[in-house]
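Pilot study result, target chain (155 residues):
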Amino acid sequence: MNYKQHTLIGLLSISIFAILMHLIFNWFSIDLKTIISVLIIGYVYCLLPDLDHRMSKITWLFLGISISGVLIGVLNTYYKFIPAEYHILIPSLILLVLTFLCARFAKHRGIIHTLRIGLIFSALVYFIIPDWKFCIIALLSYQSHLMSDGYFFRF
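Predicted structure:
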């Protein structure tokens, strides 16, 4: 499958899940912030298992974001145009190194294409949006990629 198919399946599955959870349990509010958060998390996580592929859409997206973040962080140390409480440089460097290491050394459809890594990556959403429901959205989107690749519950 290509990234367009993974994106379609991932966003469709999380959209159905979020709507059902809103209707049944009132988990998600229907406001612009929640919709955008769900769609961004869904987009990133439905492509995230391909971080182990050098030419994947998510690898290039993360490299672009991390290099931009490093440049902004370095410029910010001199010109102070972003408040000090917004840390950009260190997270951007971490993202750059992890993206490079995964793309360079991880076997494609190896350890990153497992539910175990999906659980770890999904838990990281909690540091950005401290609500476990968004972690479930991330895990469901990640799992949609694995299932569409034929790996249903590979640990």
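One observation from the pilot: The chain has two domains: 1-56+114-155, 60-102. A full batch analysis is planned for the follow-on phase.
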